[in-house]
């Protein structure tokens, strides 16, 4: 009964419809990076409407049947508190996707490069700290949320208990779970259709699927919101509403909004662009030991655009080709590169995937790659033990040579990126993002290597707006590769190079399912 009253009671249906239209407008305008007046206006309108809708919904559920102006009056009286509440709810909802608005907001977040770099280099302790704070804040909201809401709507006589809040959250999670299951079923249907239907029919199926998924998401979110507010109000008995005839125009507006969002997802560019194929750590399908000459010689036969490999500084200030900061896994020796000289490291045998090989110096690896005419993507690893000026020495010694070879350098440490560009400005230098949470323009680079799990089309578009290619690491399954291709990534860094090369030889028209899948992921 609460769901029916929350949807059909006077004023609420129109309010939900307007909220969906504003939400759709934000998705449409927020697709491309940058702040615009119309985008800010839409955000402010959605915040104001959300406050009114929740207030009007609460008063309706407790049987007050207020006029619309009365709810607006109550919202205006508590406008400061509402602003704080909505900001808090937005922050809590950001990790949950915010209905696809999270990436549209985060890609516009400018922060100092030093702060971004600190978070990236200390991502584990920072991540744990943020997770603890998030859990504490979410717990406080769970326990005190109903009392805060009562202050915003004093007519509520008995606010909900924490048990009622837990039940409401479980119901909301269940609704989203049902939506997710149905959406994945629709994705599977599109995968089946792509393989069997003509190109036009497959694209039409994708268009209809996107519309259904969007409308289903809207319904699930509205019902979850009604359940939450009903629990904030103490789950009162709700009388049967007297619905007003809203007319088909409301349904028509929702379908039009959903159609616009679906069309944007289907037709947005870039999609299925030319792909740069990059072998991760110089390995293809587990043949050879990562970052060794044997693996390099094998993978170069597949002619990747780049072979990605890693460098660590040694105790005698040389460079060894190695990814791990400890040799325990590959060489069964509990030591770091900084504890051994290059000569000692070259004598070590490393084992992986049933193969064995020797560690190799950077100069030897580079000469071998040049003989094979194989461009490299060099990742410079950093530790607190690195010598002062190591990166600048690298740039002076190898910058011009790497540029002649058509090679590039990237790093997780933005200090490396900045120093290389200052010392060797003609060298192509990129920044590796451990996760995607700020405007790429905050950390300028020649290209970006985006972490795959949290990348979105908005981050790829932001990189393109800055004139930088967007590469993604490390999709290994065919499904992940196709999804990144459908997002518009310019390159993929993968452990399965030959698989990626087969994937990008497919016709894009046979992979509309990936566009639908990306849309599902964009909602959460």
Report what the structure shows.
- The protein has 524 residues and is an alpha/beta fold.
- It folds into two domains: 2-265, no CATH class; 276-503, Phosphatidylinositol (PI) phosphodiesterase (TIM Barrel).
- 57% of the residues lie in helices and 10% in strands.
- It has helices spanning 2-8, 12-29, 37-61, 68-77, 79-93, 102-106, 113-121, 123-152, 162-196, 199-232, 248-267, 293-300, 328-331, 342-346, 362-371, 390-405, 414-423, 457-465, 478-487, 497-503, 512-522; strands at residues 276-279, 306-313, 319-321, 349-352, 355-358, 376-380, 408-411, 429-433, 447-451, 470-473, 491-494.
- It has an eight-stranded parallel barrel, surrounded by seven helices. It has a two-stranded antiparallel sheet with strand order 4-5.
- Helix 10 packs across helix 11 and helix 10 packs parallel to helix 21 (512-522).
- The longest helix is centred in the middle third of the chain and has 35 residues, at 162-196.
- The model has no long low-confidence stretch (mean pLDDT 93).
- One of its GO terms (molecular function) is phosphoric diester hydrolase activity.
- Keywords: Membrane, Transmembrane, Transmembrane helix.
- Pfam families: GDPD (PF03009).
Helix/strand layout:
Layout: H1 2-8, H2 12-29, H3 37-61, H4 68-77, H5 79-93, H6 102-106, H7 113-121, H8 123-152, H9 162-196, H10 199-232, H11 248-267, E1 276-279, H12 293-300, E2 306-313, E3 319-321, H13 328-331, H14 342-346, E4 349-352, E5 355-358, H15 362-371, E6 376-380, H16 390-405, E7 408-411, H17 414-423, E8 429-433, E9 447-451, H18 457-465, E10 470-473, H19 478-487, E11 491-494, H20 497-503, H21 512-522
Parallel strand pairs: 1-2, 1-11, 2-6, 6-7, 7-8, 8-9, 9-10, 10-11
Antiparallel strand pairs: 2-3, 4-5
Helix pairs in contact: 1-10, 2-3, 2-11, 3-4, 3-10, 9-10, 9-21, 10-11, 10-21, 16-17, 19-21
């Amino acid at each position: 009964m609460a769901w029916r009253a929350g949807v059909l009671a006077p004023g609420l249906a129109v309010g939900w419809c307007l909220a969906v239209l504003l939400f759709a407008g934000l998705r449409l305008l927020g697709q491309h990076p940058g702040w615009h007046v119309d985008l800010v206006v839409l955000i402010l309108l959605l915040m104001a409407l959300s406050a009114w809708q929740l207030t009007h919904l609460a008063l309706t559920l407790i049987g007050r049947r207020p006029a619309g102006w009365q709810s607006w009056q109550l919202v205006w009286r508590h406008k400061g508190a509402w602003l704080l509440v909505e900001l808090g709810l937005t922050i809590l909802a950001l990790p949950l996707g915010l209905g696809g608005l999270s990436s549209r907001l985060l890609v516009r977040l400018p922060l100092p490069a030093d702060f971004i770099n600190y978070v990236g280099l200390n991502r584990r302790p920072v991540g744990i700290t943020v997770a603890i704070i998030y859990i504490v804040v979410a717990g406080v909201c769970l326990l005190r949320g109903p009392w805060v809401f009562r202050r915003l709507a004093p007519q509520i006589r008995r606010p909900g208990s924490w048990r009622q809040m837990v039940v409401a959250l479980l119901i909301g999670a269940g609704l989203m779970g049902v939506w997710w299951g149905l959406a994945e079923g629709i994705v599977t249907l599109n995968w089946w259709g792509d393989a069997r239907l003509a190109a036009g029919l497959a694209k039409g199926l994708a268009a209809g699927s996107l519309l259904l998924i969007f409308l289903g998401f809207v319904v699930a979110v509205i019902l979850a919101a009604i359940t939450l507010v009903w629990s904030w109000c103490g789950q009162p008995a709700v009388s049967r509403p007297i619905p007003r005839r809203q007319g088909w125009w409301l349904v028509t507006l929702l379908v039009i909004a959903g159609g616009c969002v679906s069309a944007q997802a289907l037709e947005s560019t870039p999609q299925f662009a030319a792909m740069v194929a990059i072998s991760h750590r110089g390995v293809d399908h587990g043949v050879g030991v990562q970052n060794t000459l044997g693996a390099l010689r094998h993978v170069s036969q597949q002619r990747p655009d780049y072979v990605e490999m890693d460098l660590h500084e040694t105790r005698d200030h040389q460079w060894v080709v190695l990814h791990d900061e400890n040799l325990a896994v590959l060489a069964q020796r509990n030591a770091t590169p900084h504890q051994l000289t290059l000569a000692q490291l070259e004598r070590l045998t490393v084992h992986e995937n049933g193969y064995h090989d020797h560690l190799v110096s950077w100069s030897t690896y580079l000469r071998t790659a040049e003989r094979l005419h194989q461009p490299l993507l060099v990742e410079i690893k950093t530790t607190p033990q690195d010598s002062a000026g190591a990166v600048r020495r690298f740039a002076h010694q190898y910058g011009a040579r790497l540029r002649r070879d058509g090679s590039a350098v990237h790093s997780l440490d933005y200090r490396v990126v900045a120093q290389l560009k200052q010392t060797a400005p003609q060298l192509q230098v990129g920044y590796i993002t451990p996760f995607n949470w700020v405007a790429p323009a905050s950390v300028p680079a020649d290209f970006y290597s985006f972490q795959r799990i949290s990348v979105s089309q908005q981050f790829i578009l932001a990189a393109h707006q800055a004139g930088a290619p967007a590469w993604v690491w490390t999709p290994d399954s065919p499904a992940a590769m196709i999804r990144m291709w459908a997002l518009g990534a310019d390159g993929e860094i993968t452990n399965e190079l030959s698989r990626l090369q087969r994937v990008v030889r497919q016709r894009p028209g046979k992979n509309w399912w990936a566009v639908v899948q990306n849309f599902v992921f964009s909602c959460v």
